[in-house]
Design brief:
The chain is an alpha/beta fold. Helices cover about 30% and strands about 25% of the residues. The structure holds zinc ion (2 copies).
Length: about 300
């Protein structure tokens, strides 16, 4: 009898410990560039039984499938901004989730322009929706309902002990581009979204456990030779800026995502450049990399590509 009691106690104790874990899976660590190993940006955040997608780039649904998650399991999507590489996979989640019998509507949180994007997506799939609503499929149109929340700087969403706060970042010429601070009672993380160096990230990520930040790189030679490269890098964050951000924020771990290497510089070379100026823990994201944010941070791979 006593033994049974101890056993139950241990189970309850460990459930409490694990309840606060925030699990992150990088579904796409890339950019608009077509790369079978590096899909465009999408980050899955799991907390308790809730799942949140931050951006839905190309192939997000395929990566979810590789992580053993069905399309209808996703019901909360946050957009950092409306560049195509962050929203290309949306219609796949929306429409395929419907075929998989999503029961509740999809909640989408995004900058202004999001409503137009979603309305237009429905318009584009009008014929499909008409046909699938009829026999033999008879899918329920009500399950396609989408709840759209237009977000602005400081917007806060709370769900089951998790707080998600939107903050403005600098990704001109976009006027509405956001990063997200995600936290529960014990842990805190920031997703920068697409941005150049901005004080907002420093402020929000201060004392956070995990920083997922974008990175863009081009050599001096490339920047001098191609003015367009210089233009593109100007609204992203380069290696020197990343080192400075990490040294100020001092997160337990920094994961560099949205890896834009304009001249083919390798991940290792970019990392070497950054590590010249910082001794903090920093890695470059790969697709299907998972991170368990808890007392110890665990980094592992979901599945072999
Ligand atoms: Zn992007
Ligand atoms: Zn962008």
């Amino acid at each position: 009898m006593m033994r049974k009691f101890v056993f139950l106690f241990l189970i309850i104790l460990s459930t409490n410990i694990y309840a606060d874990i925030i699990k992150i899976t990088i579904l796409g660590s890339g950019t608009p560039r077509v790369n079978i190993d590096r899909f465009s940006q999408s980050i899955l955040v799991e907390h308790k039984s809730d799942k949140f997608l931050f951006d839905v780039g190309r192939g997000a649904l395929l990566r979810l499938s590789q992580s053993n998650i069905f399309p209808h399991e996703i019901d909360n999507i946050f957009f950092t901004h409306l560049h195509s590489d962050h929203i290309l996979g949306f219609s796949d989640i929306l429409m395929t989730g419907w075929i998989y019998h999503r029961q509740s509507g999809l909640n989408v949180f995004g900058p202004k322009g999001t409503r137009n994007f979603i309305d237009s997506t429905f318009k584009a799939f009008e014929e499909d929706i008409k046909v699938r609503s009829m026999a033999p499929e008879k899918l329920d149109k009500n399950n396609l309902q989408t709840n759209i929340k237009i977000i602005s700087d400081g917007y806060i969403h709370k769900e089951n002990g998790l707080t998600i706060e939107a903050f403005s970042v600098k990704h001109e010429p976009f006027t509405d581009a956001f990063g997200f601070k995600i936290s529960n009672n014990n842990y805190c993380m920031v997703i920068s979204g697409d941005t150049t160096y901005t004080e907002q990230v420093l402020e929000k990520a201060k004392d956070c456990d995990l920083l997922i930040h974008e990175i863009a790189h081009a050599s001096e030679h490339t920047l001098n030779k191609y003015p367009k490269a210089k233009g593109i890098i100007s609204y992203h964050t380069n290696a020197q800026q990343i080192s400075k951000i990490i040294n100020t924020v001092k997160p337990r771990l920094t994961v560099l995502n949205h890896v834009l290497s304009l001249d083919g510089t390798s991940d290792d070379e970019i990392l070497k450049e950054i590590k010249k100026n910082t001794s903090h823990e920093v890695i470059i994201a790969k697709d299907l990399m998972s991170i368990d944010l808890k007392e110890e941070i665990y980094i592992y791979k979901q599945k072999k590509l």
